[in-house]
Specification:
123 residues, mainly alpha, globular
Length: 123
Amino acid sequence: MFLFPIVGELSSTDSDSECCKYWVEWFTCTEGNEYFCDVDEDYILDRFNLTNLPQEVPHYHKAMELITDQIDEKPMSEELREQVERSAKHLYGLIHARYIITARGLVKMLDKYKRGDFGRCPR
């Protein structure tokens, strides 16, 4: 239903090597999103951490349902589906920006740095 692959929707011709069960897992593994870390679900679900985000993101509630893998399977138009997907990406980016300045977020980003996820100097 959504733009990220769901179990059983991948064919042998798809570019992704494996199917992702969760939206956050898919999003952080997608090319171009390598610098994002997995935000803890309890952080995402804490309403205090989401202050003012509903006003920033169109289709906030549907986007939050998609991020937390709680979205219902009701059919929606292709246009609305794409808008919700865009909103989910935007919302996750805003949540991520807040998360990485917390103690847990800093630790996760430090781990990514130590693994060389951001690249290495050739010298």
